[in-house]
Amino acid sequence: MKIKILLFFLLTLLGCNAVLAQDISLYQQFNGRYDFQFFGNTLNPVENSFQTSVSVFTQSSASLNLPPADQIEKAYLYWAGSGTGDFDVTLNGTDLTAERTFAHQRIIGFLTLDFFSAFVDVTTQVQTQGNGLYTLSNLDVSGFIDYHAQASTNFAGWAIIVIYKNPALPLNQINVYDGLQAVPDEINITLDNLSVIDNLGAKGAKIGFLAWEGDSGISVNETLRINGTALSNPPLNPVNNAFNGTNSFTNSSTLYNMDLDVYNIQNNIQIGDTSANINLTSGQDFVMVNAIVTKLNSQLPDATIALGNIDRQCDSRQLTVDYTVYNLNSTNPLPHTTPIAFYADGVLIGTAATVADIPIDGSESGQVTLTIPDNIPLNFTLKFVVDDNGTGTGIVAELIETNNEFASEVTLLVSPETNQLPPLESCNLGLGSANFAFSGYDDLVRTDPLQTVSFYETAEDAANGANPIIGTSNYHALTTPKEIFVRVDNGICFSITSFMLIAKNCPPTVYNYVSANEDGTNDSFFIAGLRDIFVNFQLEVYNRWGHLVWTGNNNSEDWKGITTKGIRIDGNNAPDGTYFYVLDLHDPGYPEPLTGFLYLNR
Length: 602
Fold this sequence. Notes:
Elements: H1 2-13, E1 16-20, E2 22-32, E3 34-42, E4 60-64, E5 71-82, E6 88-91, E7 94-97, E8 100-108, E9 111-121, H2 123-129, E10 132-137, H3 142-149, E11 156-165, E12 172-191, E13 206-212, E14 223-226, E15 229-230, E16 258-264, E17 276-297, E18 304-312, E19 318-327, E20 339-344, E21 347-353, E22 362-371, E23 379-386, E24 405-411, E25 424-427, E26 434-436, H4 441-445, E27 452-456, H5 459-464, E28 475-477, E29 482-489, E30 494-504, E31 509-511, E32 513-514, E33 526-528, E34 538-542, E35 548-553, E36 577-584, E37 594-600
Parallel strand pairs: 25-30, 32-37
Antiparallel strand pairs: 1-8, 2-12, 3-11, 4-10, 5-9, 5-11, 6-7, 6-10, 8-9, 12-17, 13-16, 13-17, 14-15, 14-17, 18-19, 19-22, 20-21, 20-23, 23-24, 26-28, 27-29, 29-30, 31-33, 34-35, 34-36, 36-37
């Protein structure tokens, strides 16, 4: 024993240094009628400073004893030991693998000492089993204990932190912090996210520590302070030996090389405190702090907000937004008229307020219509902030003052741009009807290849996307001019444009051979593209001597070799031969008459 202590003393003279650790930080917070309890056990048969033969168990047991009215909310299992880590253990027959791990490395002279801790959320298992005996097994650090025994740092152990609720408890705030930090010589840990409202009536304000490798027989300058005041719980935890292998929950002093200690702190905090400083010093004893749990009386709401549906209309800068204000994980109702501010890219665009008091764990839904200023771009950040009077200032004291906002990226909806379409002309087939091909107009009108284009006969159909024109490559218009409506859709919004179909009077085609023998072929003087197109035309037929023999118009039949004017030689039948025609279309597009010859043969 004396040789072992002397060796440790010589190693410390060579110097020590921690080269790997994880700072203690907030892991989880609970607000409501909550409290906490620790239970667990060491795997060291005796304190490692006094071992005559080095050994560490691979399993140990501890009991959970909660009153019947206490309901388990969370249960966190931590285990730790010497070496680089054993991250697979068994709890009451259930195999567990670490969900989170921590590591610490300490160099003492020529020794490089590794330590580990592991974490698993065992809430479901502990809720199912409830009170009773818990055995942690298969935690094996035997491969490291001989090496660590050179510095008396061979250990292993486990603990479960239980957060429980009870309707008879006062409204408290429970904070669970974890990491892995160690002394000697000194560490400072800042516990943030606290909310101290009442330190006079907070008789249950307390702080609990899960620590590893403390020794009862080493107390060189070993102190534990909160906000500068030394903590003690005599006789179990004297002021100069805080981490000494004790369990405040069972009043045990044989929790070798681990500590489950709790201290009252109602006299060490002040109203308005949002953080606390933990200072741990040790001139010799090596202690690792793994978890810290605080309980403070705190009766405050906690306002949060979330956006729901954002209703946007195409080509509108108005938004209708659903939102919900929550008061979750709180310890007091959120008062009515709590202000809400609405921002677009940081610019205040509206305000509102809650209507009723929102109870603990309650919520209130609302809806607001906002107009986005013209100087805000189409893509912007919409932010809702509860407990904000429009100046960034809150009026309600809350448990957490930094979780009041909810932001969402919003894009205003704009109808697609389109290219202007020219009128489309086609030859008049009669009385203004015509055939048109505008299948290529979809490529011509779109400004983006992803746009979809469809054509409609009415503006109403285009707006509704109903009855699209199918045959755009051979569309027959009964009357012209006719407006065709074009719907250009970008998948969200659509634009409607149009173009005109115009039937133009194309030049008529004259077929100048007439065989007036009623055989069904060329029986009359036929001019294609004339009738019901040039409705005011006047057609005259002359014989080779220049005498007028026939006149016709849109209301008369075609010429069948019948003489209706001038001298008749063979009754009304005009003789075979060459004749001449004069076709006056009476159309602005054709100011001069069309002339030519034709041949009559019976």
